[in-house]
Design a protein that fits this description.
With 103 residues, the protein is mainly β. Helix content is 10%, strand content 34%. The protein starts with 10 loop residues before the first strand and ends with a helix.
């Protein structure tokens, strides 16, 4: 079994946690891709947290994405956190195209 915990990027708890959390746009097991960069990574959502990202100030939902074995950055890391604004869902035809392009 893949040991992903040592590779999970750092996060920090926000100073104030709201009484009501935002509605999730993506759900566990859903295929997503980073769409704002050419040849962006893609994978499946394996976690959702409400936090303040440690490398910049951005409080809200963050999605932990397990990168597909054919995703461009998979040799460097197996998973990454994504801001909701940076990813989009993948339909089956686009997923198949991405997987065949990165063999």
């Amino acid at each position: 079994m893949l040991d992903i915990f040592p590779q999970i990027p750092p996060v920090a708890l926000p100073e104030i946690v709201p009484n009501e959390l935002p509605q999730q746009r993506f759900h566990l097991g859903e295929w997503v891709r980073w769409f704002q960069i050419p040849n962006g990574d893609f994978g499946r959502v394996i976690g959702v947290i409400y936090t303040q990202q440690a490398t910049c100030i951005s409080t809200g939902l963050h999605y932990l994405v397990l990168l597909d074995e054919r995703s461009p950055s998979r040799d460097t890391c197996s998973c990454d956190f994504a801001f909701e604004e940076d990813i989009e869902p993948l339909d089956n035809s686009l997923l198949q195209r991405l997987q065949s392009n990165h063999v």
